[in-house]
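Forwarding the complex inputs:
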Amino acid sequence: MKADDLLKRVSDLEVLLNDFSQGQLRIDQAENLKQVFLFFKKTLVHSISSTGMYHSGPTGAKEKTSFDPLRSPCAENKTEDHIDIRTYDAIVNHFKTYDTVLKSLNIEPPMKTEIYSSFIYNNNGKSVLEKRESVDLMPLLDDCMGEMELLEELLKLYEKNAMEFIGLAKIHLQNADYQNLKMAAHKIKAGLAMLKTNDLYLIVSQMEHVCETNKDDKYLHFLYNCFVEELPLVIESLQEALSDLRKNNKH
Amino acid sequence: MVRKKLLLAEDDELLASLLNFRLNKGGYEVIHSSNGKQVKEFLGQTMPDIIVSDIMMPYFSGIELIGYVRNELKSAVPIIIISSAGNEENVLNAFELGANDFISKPVSPSELLVRVARELNKN
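Prediction (whole assembly, two chains):
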């Protein structure tokens, strides 16, 4: 997604936010608003990181760096593909406004979450989001009454559902079949929520919303790609969590 | 002791597996159907003690299922609907057609067990 598209979406969101006052906002609306906001922030972070605007050290450095959304971008890295400083500043200003509005609505500012907290740089100097969300499988194991085999089976089904969704979404996108894409997104949401994999949940929620509203094909492709990129990280986190549970069970 | 028959109509395998397991452990005889056609066929042969159904199912939605059970089969069997957040309109339709209760996704199996027991105790 281009930075100016992103800026437009952020601006639209700002208008939405300003339409609410604290007294008028129901808890579910506040939660929805927060989730949408979180997603846009993530989209922004992803967009900025993929343009390589953030560098805490020399290009190509492999170390982890803390992510500061309000840090100045590196002007020397500006190319045609990069977000220009004016656009960047405008985006940052919008987010500052959002944070203020969210605080006034008693909604936890999304940047407190650790999801967006760090970056890692690969060998090409291109920053990518580090594995972000740790998954706690304990509540699900409780639901499974401690049956590890059932939990493992559920994880396999989760992965299968996600892979099926990728295949279905690709076909629906190719055919511009937004109704079925919306259905597919809607269907997978329950499983994503069940395992509390919020990143993927936010992506498909947004896909469902876009299918319902403006059917922005480019944006849907972007979201689809986000899902495809995100899934292996989530599965890795789930496997790690499962492995930890197995170890704890042995002790 | 005779186990109560529970028809679980849910096409999401992930959720259905967990609910099937817990409902079985909770003492119910669970008949699981993953699409509306199967549900309709099953209901044509036998009526369970309670139905737990997702709203969005292939071929035959949960809403259609309620209409079928109440209007065609003339049955008062308790029906609990599983719905997603943001599906309020469907939930209202479900109640208008005769659903007894609803539970939102992600479904807590423990909560579902309580709701199922409550509906069965009412009868």
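The CA atoms of residues 83 and 96 of chain B lie 15 Å apart.
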